[in-house]
């Protein structure tokens, strides 16, 4: 229940039982937004197709939690369209900032129009002091209509001291202000379970729930012929990820036989969406889902055209009518929509003279322009109409080279392969809450502008025996071995440094079987053993490994490149600005050392440098040693953790680095530190070999 997911369309699954089903035109999504102050409230969004959702009321609450709850916070809104023309909503009564994860009440609400609600709070220990007087938490209620008994059944999980979370049920009274009976156990299984979600299909009740057993993985399903008992738990998890999940929800797409299973990947800050026709076999469809908000555990019901119009009349704002673009050339994570401007960054090679923005519009909104337009001379004005409301936006389309990769990636390492005559970029897979990624990918390019994802090259969960978490900050090197080449890939996993080997720069890579660095150098007490960098000295042919967070360490590698000479370990931390991300390269007789200052979650994350006459130091720090930093006026923040590469073709050096997502990263607070993107800009030097400060750009290398 804590970090939970959408629940969609319970009415749609009972179409066979309803004789007077309304003609549905879209969906209403009720949700809350988080665990912080003011976030545990009911929000609304609408959708025409069940895939694209637009927040109403500027993504602000539509009900004040303080007016309907005991705690001041409500979570997990679940709405049911009743058989009697009423809407029923149930909520967890919990305010996490003050209460933690313990609560005793739920809220029952009733409405005729989805706008005006009456409410009742049911405090379980007060209502049932003899049997449930010691209940410590009451989580994630949902409502379903029992056609056999002609009653509304509410079900939720509860925990008593010394016990486990158990899912119970009770039938609501006629006015939906209380229960007719004492709660009874609904699902019987060994171990704990929460987040129940019941779907009726083909005469069976399919009961999805989160398995809370110690070490449990995720979502299980039980099936029964009866709504209130006899559920048999299946042996297989139905979620399609190895990450921790909870808060499953299901819905049936209007007018189809397709069901969606959704769940919260709560350790990564993401949802996953899967489609199925039989509620047994599911296929991930994450890329098809779009929202202009970040929901937590909610529900979606199908609604009519009239209902949608009333909701939009009440809470739709013309500032929110556009949610991005459906054109695949648009970098969707970098779209900027302001009060009167829509900025669409597109990939290199896009024809601006004949470009269709394919704007994703709120249901019911009409546009003054359709199809392909000429954006080569600048922005065009689009007028949008919703009923009697109108709004004009200037739509600008720009070919932007940065970021160079589509998606969230960070800590980029780049090499030029002599064997393949191409560039290879090895980043951290980002976008995971708390830097919790578990795999690495590689990208290939002939020109530093056009990049192809060559896929996963190392998955900690499947291919590394000594660590299965925190896949961070890799580096790689190409080495001539006999008449061919070998590729050595050094990576961080579980705050240790490992190494894998391949015969091709795009892998597959095979892990060596043990960490290369899992200890602190002598004299070092703090920091982490992360962020490796590998460098081969062109003067001696010796190879060196650098690593460290809070300190910079170096050791010579043995000839096998998968072990180090421990007697050569040396700590060469340049100064107090050093945080992490060492990068070493050689140019015109000088050894250059670069590193990142500050924290990757900080907008002030930046790169500095020093030089040396040896790959082992000592380091000489120039008076002005800043390499790259933020440019707030351009919305560029958190520029750091870089690598460099040299192009013989045009005698040019390049810096590859990550920054906060633009434009949304700076609004994310600490979360910006794992919503980063990779950029490339020119790296230049003066006649004396000093690094000229890089101005991070939006255009990058695109022309």
Automatic annotation (TrEMBL):
<dbReference type="InterPro" id="IPR023296">
    <property type="entry name" value="Glyco_hydro_beta-prop_sf"/>
</dbReference>
<keyword id="KW-0326">Glycosidase</keyword>
<comment type="similarity">
    <text>Belongs to the glycosyl hydrolase 43 family.</text>
</comment>
<dbReference type="GO" id="GO:0045493">
    <property type="term" value="P:xylan catabolic process"/>
</dbReference>
<dbReference type="Pfam" id="PF04616">
    <property type="entry name" value="Glyco_hydro_43"/>
</dbReference>
<keyword id="KW-0858">Xylan degradation</keyword>
<dbReference type="InterPro" id="IPR052176">
    <property type="entry name" value="Glycosyl_Hydrlase_43_Enz"/>
</dbReference>
<keyword id="KW-0378">Hydrolase</keyword>
<dbReference type="GO" id="GO:0004553">
    <property type="term" value="F:hydrolase activity, hydrolyzing O-glycosyl compounds"/>
</dbReference>
<keyword id="KW-0119">Carbohydrate metabolism</keyword>
<protein>
    <submittedName>
        <fullName>Family 43 glycosylhydrolase</fullName>
    </submittedName>
</protein>
<dbReference type="InterPro" id="IPR006710">
    <property type="entry name" value="Glyco_hydro_43"/>
</dbReference>
<keyword id="KW-0624">Polysaccharide degradation</keyword>
